[in-house]
Every structure is written in C-alpha cells, then in structure tokens.
Amino acid sequence: MFSYCENDNIIYKSMQEQKKNIKKASFIVKNVKGLHTRPSTELVKCSSSFNSTISLIYKNYHVNAKSLLGILMLAASKGSKITIEADGEDAEKAVDTIVNLANNNFNIKY
Asked: How many domains does the chain have?
C-alpha cells in the first residue's frame, strides 16, 4: 500500500499500519482420529460465522479455515499443534471461539 505526496515521492505504510487486527493462538488436536471430516466440518461452520479472514497453520502449510478441503489437506493427526491466525474486526472473538471448539473436541463424542 502506498500513497503519493506532493513531490511524487512514494510513502510506504509501515508493516504495523498494514496489519489491521491480527490475532493468533494455537491448539493441540485431541481427537483420537485427528482432524478428519466431522471435526473439520465443525471448524468450517464455526470459522464461517466470522467476518475475519481466518487461517490455520500446520507444518508450514497455511489454509483457509473456512475451507473443508483446505483443512483436510493438513492431515493433522492427534497431538498436532495447529496455529490459528485471524485478521479482521472480529479476529479476537474468532480465535477464542475456535480454541474453545478445539478444546471441546469439536463437539464430537466418540
């Protein structure tokens, strides 16, 4: 992002200005079968209820938390540490809600 001043010099915004409201947290997958279709579907439903852009990060893979196929591609097994990164007006609420969902085994009873 940039803007022009009167003498046509380019003024770049700092990285801090470009980052709006980014929040991060992590959770450990506790489900015996990992992030298979059922917990991933719950995660997508939860993530889709927020306006923020939400990503899941695992083993240097970044996927959209609102994409079922993206989450399944992570192939995260039990014990995997997943980082959540949200950017937007409701980022903090989104991250907190997803962490809570994960801590409750994605509302799945085996």
From this structure: 1
Q: Say if 3 falls within a structural domain.
A: no
CATH (domain of 87): 3.30.1340.10
Give domain status of residue 12, yes or no: no
Q: Among residues 30, 36, 45, 93, which one is catalytic?
A: 36
What's the whole-model pTM score? 0.80
What digits encode the pLDDT tens for the residues 48-96?
999 999 999 999 999 999 999 999 999 999 999 999 999 999 999 999 9
Average pLDDT over every residue of 12-16 = 43
Q: Would you call 62 a catalytic residue per the annotation? A: no
> Which residue from 104, 57, 110, 47 is spatially nearest to 80, judged by alpha carbons?
57
Q: Collapsing DSSP states into helix, strand and coil, what is residue 78? A: coil
Domain limits at 49?
Answer: 20-107
Joined together, the tokens standing for residue 93 give 């609420």
